[in-house]
Write a structure and sequence with these properties.
By secondary structure, the protein is α+β, with helices and mostly antiparallel strands. It is built from 19 helices and 14 strands. Strands 1, 2, 3, 4, 7 and 8 form a six-stranded mixed β-sheet that branches. It starts with 5 loop residues before the first helix and ends in an 11-residue tail after the last helix.
């Protein structure tokens, strides 16, 4: 019995159902067999449809599938990023003596649906209801150096208004600073903030069982939002932000921006995010991001009267080398505070050192543990008392200097240039900083700067200003004649010239 075409099937159904003809009459009228009419007349079979049938698995496949399930169960406790894949399972089967191809194992695993995707429910939010956060990375040229930067990304899932802050790292101070910046950018605060289980916010646990860090509770209380944490490996619970890092990379870091510092980079990223919100429309939504963001801003909670200080605050001792140690980096303090305990506030870009409420010094935060932040001025008192240390003093060799003084040290060819630097720094105790740096810049322009040349330009400046102040009347550190000390060690005599 051959299968009938759709037109014949239609005639059989019409004659049987509408006209009420018998199977014999329909077969005679259409010229088909009664068996064909009997098969199709009541609509239980469609022409061209194949009957489903169950294929019996051969015993070897059943054995291999059982072994695959056994292997997977034995390794189910492995971390999500170390789960077994088809290739590894195939290799394990081969080692166990099974003769099977890699493609066959891959096919078996796919048909067993062991790797089936997580099923989730699409989420919708009301205006001002939620904000989602995530971390990412990108590259930019900062001061001509290719630099990896951390992206703190935020999105309002109702309007899809986006924001990204750039930081040198993903520390807790960057995490909290990112919140303050995001809330100020959006001009308000959502009812809920949704996160992965970030260590900066979660002490332990995940999802509804997450135990929040005390600093995060303070942020939560000050801005009056509720922190919500996703379950482990459940990124779909904050689906709006999952692609945001890629979007920010595309709109702000492709091609890689070239900036002088992080402040310029943040301005560039802010503009890219604003342009995206201004001109983009999400597929499937009736209004643009701009229109929906304007609507959502009206529904956000108001900002508090003053922003939270996001800096991490710790107590630290000042060591005998006049430094405090933060994450392996040394930050210097003035001489008078040696041996005391100070308060250190750590923000993404600065380390501020306080004593009894007074700011002692604001350091640029170091990016590497070897990048110690010595300020040469902090060591002047001790260098005057111990001039032999000047030649090899680390604060002079690798200290943080203004651009003009750093250039002076590069251009000065004298063997006693460290002593000259100390004398220039001593001038800074009596002379305005801008004036002193101007004189150093003029000396550098000659190509062979020296301390005497700096004094010369200061004298010119003083004359031009009708100032009779004598510049070179202060303490001057003389280079030590170390040969005298060597002679003394050998049994010689210390000369007056060397007795500094």
């Amino acid at each position: 019995m051959a299968a009938v075409d759709i037109d014949t099937y239609k005639m059989i159904r019409r004659l049987y159902t509408v006209d009420g003809l018998s199977q014999r009459q329909i077969a005679k009228q259409l010229g088909v067999s009664r068996k064909t009419v009997r098969k199709y007349c009541n609509g239980s079979v469609l022409p061209g449809n194949r009957k489903d049938y169950q294929v019996e698995k051969n015993p070897m496949r059943v054995t291999i599938e059982n072994e695959i399930i056994k292997i997977i169960n034995e390794h189910k406790e492995a971390p999500s990023k170390q789960k077994l894949n088809a290739k590894v399972i195939w290799q394990m089967l081969i080692k166990s003596g099974y003769s099977v191809g890699a493609s066959t194992v891959r096919k078996y695993i796919q048909e067993m649906r062991i790797d089936k995707p997580e099923i989730f429910i699409p989420l919708e939010f009301e205006p001002g209801e939620a904000m989602e956060f995530d971390w990412g990375d990108a590259y930019a040229y900062i001061n001509k150096v290719k630099t990896r930067v951390s992206l703190f990304c935020a999105v309002l899932p109702y309007s899809y208004g986006i924001f990204a802050a750039v930081f040198p790292d993903k520390t807790s101070s960057s995490f909290f600073t990112g919140h303050v910046m995001a809330f100020e950018y959006f001009e308000g605060v959502p009812l809920r903030c949704i996160y992965d289980n970030l260590k900066s916010a979660v002490l332990e646990g995940s999802g509804k069982d997450a135990i929040k860090q005390e600093r995060f509770k303070k942020l939560e209380a000050h801005y009056a939002f509720e922190g919500i944490f996703c379950n482990a490996a459940s990124g779909w619970e904050k689906g709006s932000v999952e692609n945001l890092v890629a979007i920010v990379r595309q709109i702000a870091f492709t091609p890689m921006p070239r900036v002088q510092n992080f402040a310029q980079l943040q301005e560039h990223v802010n503009q890219a995010c604003m342009d995206y919100c201004m001109h983009h429309k999400i597929k499937g939504r009736q209004a643009s991001i701009k229109d929906m963001l304007d609507e959502e801003r009206k529904c956000l909670l108001p900002l508090p009267a003053y922003p939270l200080d996001p800096a991490e605050e710790i107590k630290a001792p000042v060591y005998p080398d006049l430094t405090v140690r933060i994450n392996g980096v040394k930050y210097s303090v003035p001489y008078a505070y040696a041996g005391l305990t100070v308060t250190v506030k750590i923000s993404p870009f600065h380390v501020d050192i306080y004593h009894e409420g007074n700011l002692l010094y604001r350091h640029k935060k170091a990016l590497h543990t070897s990048d110690h932040q010595y300020i040469p001025e902090h060591y002047l008192e001790i260098l005057i008392r111990k001039p032999r240390a000047i030649k090899n003093a680390a604060p002079l060799k690798s200290g943080v200097l203004p651009l003009e003084l750093a250039e002076f040290m590069q251009l000065c060819k004298s063997r006693d240039k460290n002593y000259q630097l100390v004398n220039i720094l001593l001038l800074g105790k009596r002379i305005d900083k801008d004036t002193l740096l101007w004189a150093v810049k003029q000396a550098n322009a000659t190509g062979t700067p020296s301390y005497e040349m700096v004094c010369f330009y200061l004298e010119i400046q003083a004359v031009n200003a009708n100032d009779n102040t004598v510049i070179d009347d202060g303490v001057k550190v003389k280079a030590v004649d170390l040969e005298s000390y060597d002679n003394l060690i050998k049994g010689g005599h210390l000369t007056n010239e060397g007795n500094e």
